[in-house]
């Protein structure tokens, strides 16, 4: 299995999990202060990592929540954001310009900023009211499973949280195992489809951000492969007409509440193209994690699965994931 | 100028404008009842028509507003929606299944439903608390310019509304004129690019929904032309890497607040592809409408411009806009 460092993956998760009491203390502080909005803002792939937590809050509670791209926030604002709001942000480098500008904007509003950052002593940490550090690579999501989970628990919407959080101790090892379970299928997928001229990516609910960001931030950005992403319900409002037997379609199926929408796409697409690939969160075992929590974990399971496409495709195409034509090269 | 019926376009707008006092009375009733949320829900192209009004409310007022696809609403709900909310919906036929299910859902919540419908005595009208009818075709947006404009006026956020609404009397004629101004460029665009294997569509703010829906609901659905749509700020988080000299890029520039984001894309794209087309809302005269209102009107101006691509492309490709492989043909 190429490009795979199991101990590193487990160690990254452990690095976050050992901060559990610190993360829970931040959640407690947020609840004690009170808030009028839980607001998620970031850009590109980072925003897609955060979006499922906005989805989770809306679906399981009446807590006020919203999400918005930092670029849009900077120009149009969000009219719900006040000095009593809590803003969640993330940046690996801790100095992404758009994210920093947005952090300064919400700081000026007087909001309470909680950030997840990949390196110590970054500019983002400097303007944040609370910061949680993570080591390189995923699963940064673990920070938000603990943080948002504890807020939901404190507010009475997630009584199982203590047991859930205890299960999260095994998340790193489970996701390393998912990578092993997924590798062969992902290697074949990469080998079969890396030269396709057009790739339709579909997902819904808590996996729609993943369909959107994996196709754009990995296939387009790092492999220069053209894609289209569309959510499962919206697929039926236009993109369905493109399907013919040789059109490449990749569908992500969630174990979350919107699964029926993905299954509808599957039934339709398998009738109209021979190049349909389904990556189904349900297909992967999660050793050490109770089944009752699986419906929350599709985003992090799918991130692990799709990483095996990335790790294989760069070898197959002899095109390193790190090559860029333009991104962060000069001004634009 | 092919496929163009000027008097019909003007008549469609007049049909809506003559209902101005009825529309304003609905706005007044909404304000008198009070509300905790102004909520927009629909699907596909109809949702894209509504989204700029959610954008407008957020940008210019502190009124509580939200938008959500009907399919998502039906499964996950919206935790801000209560019996004190106002829900705006639209459907040309008035019987779209997803929209009707969503209407029933919000009706059960006890919300106040305002619908815009293309035919009389539809199922959607039957469950709505107030309905405004429009004739076939655009500009249905005119209903919402008057309705949302009057709500903003009543709440103190749009003092110029009476004059704005007076200007709207000329909207139909102005948009017919826009079509004449745009036709030759659109005809050439259709002739040049209808066989492109991949078409990147970009827009931002109040024109992002148009970039999204025109590429999906017209080019994909009715011409079977593969597209990718991405918002102007998000373009720089991945899709930019696809640009080479022969990659077809279509950029919509708004006169709204996010214009700087579109201009950034323009500066970048014109350096890296020879197949960049910019449709700029600023390029079209609007006879009978004051310049100070132009910044609100990009969605309806661009709808008129892009319709000239549609009307020309179906002749050039000998592929009627009405042909479908699958859409509304049998169950799926």
From TrEMBL, chains A, B:
Gene Ontology terms describing biological process = fructose 6-phosphate metabolic process; protein N-linked glycosylation; UDP-N-acetylglucosamine metabolic process
- Start and end residues of each SIS domain: 26-162
Q: Which GO terms describe its molecular function?
A: carbohydrate derivative binding; glutamine-fructose-6-phosphate transaminase (isomerizing) activity
A Pfam family: SIS
Protein's name according to its UniProt entry: SIS domain-containing protein
- Provide the species name: Parablautia muri
């Amino acid at each position: 299995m190429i490009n795979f460092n199991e101990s590193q993956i487990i160690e990254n998760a452990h690095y976050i999990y050992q901060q559990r009491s610190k993360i829970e203390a931040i959640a407690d502080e947020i609840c004690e202060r009170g808030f009028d909005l839980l607001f998620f803002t970031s850009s590109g792939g980072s925003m897609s990592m955060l979006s499922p937590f906005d989805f989770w809050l809306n679906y399981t509670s009446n807590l006020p929540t919203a999400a918005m791209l930092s670029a849009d926030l900077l120009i149009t604002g969000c009219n719900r954001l006040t000095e009593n709001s809590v803003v969640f942000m993330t940046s690996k480098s801790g100095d992404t310009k758009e994210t920093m500008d947005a952090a300064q904007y919400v700081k000026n509003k007087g909001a309470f900023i909680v950030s997840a950052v990949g390196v110590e002593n970054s500019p983002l940490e400097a303007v944040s009211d609370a910061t949680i550090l993570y080591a390189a690579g995923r699963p940064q999501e673990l920070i938000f499973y603990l943080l948002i989970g504890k807020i939901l628990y404190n507010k009475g919407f997630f009584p199982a949280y203590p047991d859930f959080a205890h299960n999260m101790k095994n998340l790193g090892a489970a996701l390393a195992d998912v990578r092993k379970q997924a590798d062969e299928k992902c290697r074949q997928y990469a080998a079969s489809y890396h030269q396709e001229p057009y790739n339709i990516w579909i997902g819904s609910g808590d996996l729609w951000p993943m369909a959107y960001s994996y196709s754009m931030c990995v296939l387009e950005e790092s492999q220069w492969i053209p894609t289209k992403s569309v959510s499962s319900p919206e697929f039926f409002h236009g993109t369905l007409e493109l399907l013919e037997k040789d059109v490449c379609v990749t569908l992500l199926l969630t174990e979350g509440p919107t699964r029926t929408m993905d299954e509808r796409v599957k039934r339709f697409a398998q009738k109209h193209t021979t190049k349909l690939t389904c990556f189904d969160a349900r297909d992967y075992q999660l050793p050490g994690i109770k089944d009752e929590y699986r419906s929350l974990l599709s985003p992090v399971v799918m991130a692990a699965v799709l990483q095996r496409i990335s790790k294989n495709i760069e070898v197959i195409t002899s095109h390193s994931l790190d090559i860029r034509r333009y991104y962060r090269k000069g001004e634009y």
